[in-house]
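Hypothesis: this fold can be encoded by more than one sequence.
Test: take the structure tokens below, design a sequence, compare later.
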């Protein structure tokens, strides 16, 4: 009696993944998801955010929401208010600290441009730690790097939340038209 030929692993894996395509599964963080969300997210106008860290966040959000620079009529206006808290950690006997932390909280408000109605609100947070060195310049650079990491993380988090909101809006409008 002869044994049937074994199924190659790649073929078996593709057979296991095939049902996911039929159920409408779309990974949120994939490159394809970034491209498909682009037109809806590009219609969000990011308002000005005060202070240097706010300017950095506004620029990061504009790049994250419209990476291709599409010229789209704004349907939504995004307002973000930031709160940045710096905490000293690792307090020594001489009351100096060796470690610091930057906590950044962003409150989001998404408004429809046509009606001025608030359609989405959320709050995001990012935390980054840094070493406080004896050299003042190095300590300042380390703190600025922590703030930059917070901005990057917040921009990714806000973009993800807005992408999920836009997907839900698209699903709702598709159900209304059908």
């Amino acid at each position: 009696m002869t044994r049937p030929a074994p199924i190659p692993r790649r073929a078996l894996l593709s057979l296991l993944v095939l049902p996911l395509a039929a159920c409408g599964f779309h990974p949120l963080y994939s490159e394809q998801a970034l491209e498909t969300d682009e037109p809806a997210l590009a219609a969000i106008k990011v308002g000005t955010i005060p202070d240097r860290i706010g300017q950095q966040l506004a620029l990061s959000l504009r790049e994250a929401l419209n990476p291709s620079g599409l010229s789209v009529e704004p349907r939504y206006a995004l307002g973000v208010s930031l709160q940045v808290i710096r905490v000293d950690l690792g307090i020594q006997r001489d009351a100096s600290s060796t470690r610091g932390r930057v906590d950044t909280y962003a409150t989001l408000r998404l408004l429809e441009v046509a009606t001025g109605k608030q359609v989405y609100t959320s709050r995001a947070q990012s935390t980054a730690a840094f070493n406080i060195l004896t050299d003042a310049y190095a300590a300042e650079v380390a703190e600025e790097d922590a703030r930059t990491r917070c901005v990057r993380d917040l921009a990714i988090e806000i973009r993800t939340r807005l992408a999920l909101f836009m997907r839900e809006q698209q699903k709702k409008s598709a159900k209304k038209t059908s």
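The helical segments are 9-22, 31-42, 51-65, 136-177. The domain at 30-172 is CATH 3.30.160.150 (Double Stranded RNA Binding Domain).
Hypothesis status: open.
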